[in-house]
Amino acid sequence: MTETSARSLEGRLRSDIDKSGYYPALVFDSLSTALASEAVLDYVVHHEATFDGRDELRRHVTVLALTPTRLVVGHTDEHPPDETTERPYATSSTEAVRLERVDSVVVTRVVSEPAKYVSGGPVHEVV
User: Fold this and answer.
1) Which segments within the chain are labelled E, that is strand?
2) 3-state percent breakdown (helix, strand, coil) of the chain, nearest 5
């Protein structure tokens, strides 16, 4: 990968994190710390909104970044005020896994009316 294409990919990664609209500075800074100076070969940004037990909207974002030697997984959650703080807060965690240590992948598929599912049919996800 050339230096120009690496910068272009990093720019697209930053743009996709920004487009998620979910604390982009925090998400990018957390990921950048874990990446150090290693180039990103490819990435996925996944933003998801869910409702908590009090029917309040909660968001979280996961970023997977592939480098020549590692898979870096970043995950950022928002939290309501609790016993530790009276203000809403966010947590942002990263994990770096050496590629030589990756030996399995789990894939979950959710479909509506599975008895009627036809191979290649639509997959359903509630967000």
Assistant:
1) 42-51, 57-66, 70-79, 89-98
2) 30, 35, 40
Its pTM surpasses 0.90: no
Question: Domain boundaries in the chain?
Answer: 3-116
Structural tokens at position 89: 């807060």
Q: Which of 107, 38, 92, 36 is nearest to 62 (CA)?
A: 92
For the segment 41-100, what is each residue's pLDDT rounded down to a tens digit?
999 999 987 777 777 777 889 999 999 999 999 999 988 888 988 998 999 999 999 999
Tell me the sheet residues that pair with 46: 62
Query: What is the C-alpha to C-alpha distance for residues 102 and 97, in angstroms, rounded to an integer?
Result: 7
Q: CA-to-CA distance for 23 and 60, rounded, in angstroms?
A: 10
> 27: closest CA among 43, 45, 6?
45
42-51: strand order across its sheet: 42-51, 57-66, 70-79, 89-98
Residue 75 is which amino acid? H
Rounded to an integer, what distance in angstroms lies between the CA atom of residue 85 and that of residue 60?
A: 19
